[in-house]
Amino acid sequence: MNVDPADLIACPQCDALYRATHLPDGKRATCVRCGTVLISPRERSFLHVVAFSFTGMILMIGAIFFPFLEISTRGLSHESSIFGVAMAFSDGWIAPLAFFVLSMIVALPIFRFVALIYTLWPLANGKPAWKHAATMFRLAEESQPWAMAEIFIIGTAVALVKLGGLAKVSLGPAFWAFCVLIIVIALKNSFVSKWTIWDAIERK
Ligand SMILES: [Zn+2]
Questions:
Q1: How far apart are the CA of 66 and the centre of ligand 1, in A?
Q2: How does pLDDT run across 115-127, given as a tens digit for each residue?
Q3: Residues contacting 33, CB < 8 A, separation 6+
Q4: How far apart are the CA of 153 and the centre of ligand 1, in A?
Q5: What is the rounded CA–CA span in Å between residue 129 and residue 199?
Q6: How far apart are CA 16 and CA 71, in angstroms?
Q7: In which band, very low, low, confident or very high, does the pLDDT at 196 lie, cut at 50, 70 and 90?
Q8: 15 CA distance to ligand 1 centroid (A)?
Q9: 23 Cα: distance to centroid of ligand 1 (angstroms)
Q10: Are 70 and 169 in contact (CB under 8 A)?
Q11: Dist. CA 24 → ligand 1 center (Å)
Q12: What is the whole-number distance in angstroms between the Cα of residue 3 and the centre of ligand 1?
């Protein structure tokens, strides 16, 4: 069988191999084995990704600076934002930790949103991709495993259960912004089809 590897598309979840074709408007191709979206309709899905990325960026900014949780015990209470917590590490030898925390849970997710908007905004409007679109999209893809907003929320939930016995913990608006953010990221991912995006970037 003579097949050009460029014509093949592998499912990102289960590695099933398919022959890629351009679909008519409004059609999407999903993996028969696991249901992952392989090829999505172009302009409309790009616009969805741009919209979700923009929403995510605004939620992220709220999630960083609004109070995340308030701890009170014996009449004393203290509330803190994520930015405040990271800055608490910013003195002395532990300073690199503040930098690491902020870059993994804040800077990287924001960068990924910006990169996706940069890549898809012209494409969603039916214009050719901007100059550095290929580099930006590759960076966004490669940094995905390092963007840890979801893991942070799970870690926080575990810590809250442990703290619950010692003090009264109440959740601030930033916690809920983070929860919505995770849903927005999942929705955004359901519209991203790497094949469709690369195909659109290359067809200048
Ligand atoms: Zn699959």
A1: 39
A2: 999 998 888 887 8
A3: 11, 14, 16
A4: 27
A5: 11
A6: 49
A7: confident
A8: 6
A9: 18
A10: yes
A11: 22
A12: 20
Evaluate whether the domain defined by 42-202 bears CATH number 1.20.140. Answer: yes
Residue extent(s) of CATH 1.20.140 domains in the chain? 42-202
Tell me the CB-side half-sphere exposure of residue 195, using CA atoms within 13 A. 23
Would you give the DSSP letter of residue 113? H
What six digits make up the tokens of 5?
């590897």
Mean pLDDT, rounded, for 81-108:
80
The size of the chain, in residues, is: 204
Range with the poorest average pLDDT among 27-31, 100-104, 178-182 = 100-104
User: What is the CA(17)–ligand 1 centre distance, in A?
Assistant: 9
For residue 94, what is the DSSP state? G
- Using the mean position of ligand 1's atoms as its centre, give its distance from the Cα of residue 102 in Å: 34
